[in-house]
């Protein structure tokens, strides 16, 4: 009799729980105010916005199609609790989509390949590398700096950002480093997936920052600390910080959260700075045989011949951070860069840095590249509008 009562109570508890979850369903609308199709834009839904305590069992269903969307929950502050839920709606020009926020089990979640990936790479001194289905990058850590300063092999002294020119959508970081560690090949040679033939040196590469005082640009050394935040189907992100660095008498404290979303050619750099009221990420001008261009309000670009192909690089930001740009051309090796000047607001600034390689079949010329930059910045300055309906 007791076991029967326990069973009835358990059944009642399940019923109440299910009804409670059903009652808590929410509906959101997402509005595209631009007359352009918008794909591969990531919407972030916070716990506070959704008014839920746990994002791990939340799903998003397209009301019109009935399809569950691919999502990714992210713990940004490493406290063990997921803070935001990501998804990428497919929006037609001047359209509005409706989605239902529902509770789902782990087994009900749509599966997607993890194309957004990053990791610390101790087997190659101490790089940190990241990629998605379009592009790949890496930066250099303290052991690489130590090796350089002590004249050891495989030393690198640089806070510039290296570009890995990939041709394929699938992840290549682990494959390319495996070639290096097992000595079965070189990622400096293209065997069909692309290659690293991009020189950084003392330059800013694709987005390393600098501070200008008088006519001189000052830069930090290699990153000193790192923390992976997330990898997944829609985003990879990580945190890095640098040893305090001198900029003509100013002591600058710098850290960054770098993220890269699915379908994007640009990594987002969210920078925290103390000791300066402006900062300038840069693009290396290599042999100085390319063309610097800008829209004067959001971006600066450098399109150049690159071995047997062509390469476009760019820096973009929102209008509120834009503070001009400069083509800095000097005789010293690796120090000629196209700079994007940024305002620092309440100790923070933000920019995007990325590239498009002609051999990846994404952009065939400078005009196509700049059309992508204009489209990207228009979407950046006019984000999708998200509203809870009930």
From TrEMBL:
InterPro entries: DUF4861 (IPR032342), Gal_mutarotase_sf_dom (IPR011013). Pfam families: DUF4861 (PF16153). This is DUF4861 family protein. SUPFAM superfamilies: Galactose mutarotase-like (SSF74650).
